């Protein structure tokens, strides 16, 4: 993963300087699983569930919700969408807790990593993506009794905007609608009506 300014590269717990190609720092590996990404602030890196300060290279905190998870950042608001991607080998896991975690989509605040909302999709999640305008969130799920029987459903998560920059679980509403029985991508509206009106107003001024 590249830093927000493309000056450093994080790979397998190693931080590299892109220009000089020299190793800057080697982070302690607290786990052999997980992914490494930069926080959009540019001051922190997330390696599995560990959050490290790039200014001091010290461990800031451990966030259990990030364990073995992937992250999609929302660059227009201080939010991250966290999920544990489904892998075929994971279907044989005996840990009920770990299997359950693979059906959850979490929303965390990127500033303090506090849980804003958790939605149980009730099916393993393959992937999650934001559209270019960051007005919709899509998730690809497994649905069916086996890997050869894949289906889908439409699950919508509407997130409200917050004037003071603080978010709570009340800002996130969950609606569910049955799909057409095929593996598909579901999109969730990330703005309420008021936010849409503001966005439309901004477009008029361009």
Automatic annotation (TrEMBL):
Record keywords: Nucleus
Record flagged with keyword Transport: no
Keyword match Nucleus: yes
Protein name: Uncharacterized protein
GO biological process, one term: protein ubiquitination
Biased composition (Low complexity): 145-162
Record-level GO cellular component terms: Cul4-RING E3 ubiquitin ligase complex; nucleus
Predominant cellular place of this UniProt entry's protein: nucleus
UniProt-annotated stretches for the region Disordered: 138-206
Biased composition (Acidic residues): 163-178, 191-206
Subcellular location: Nucleus
């Amino acid at each position: 993963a590249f830093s927000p300014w493309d000056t450093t590269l994080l790979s397998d717990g190693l931080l590299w300087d892109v220009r000089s190609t020299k190793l800057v720092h080697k982070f302690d590996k607290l786990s052999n699983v997980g992914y490494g990404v930069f926080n959009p602030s540019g001051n922190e890196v997330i390696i599995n569930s560990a959050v490290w300060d790039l200014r001091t290279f010290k461990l800031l905190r451990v966030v259990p919700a990030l364990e073995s998870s992937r992250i999609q950042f929302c660059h227009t608001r201080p939010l991250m969408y966290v999920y544990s991607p489904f892998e075929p080998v994971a279907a044989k896991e005996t840990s009920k807790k770990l299997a359950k975690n693979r059906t959850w989509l979490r929303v965390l605040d990127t500033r303090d990593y506090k849980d804003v909302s958790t939605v149980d999709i009730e099916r393993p999640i393959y992937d999650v993506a934001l559209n270019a305008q960051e007005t919709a969130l899509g998730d690809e799920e497994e649905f069916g009794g086996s890997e050869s029987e894949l289906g889908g459903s439409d699950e919508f998560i509407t997130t409200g905007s917050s004037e003071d920059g603080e978010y709570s679980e009340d800002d996130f509403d969950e609606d569910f609608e049955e799909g057409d029985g095929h593996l598909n991508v579901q999109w969730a509206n990330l703005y309420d009506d008021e936010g849409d009106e503001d966005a439309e107003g901004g477009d008029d001024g361009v």
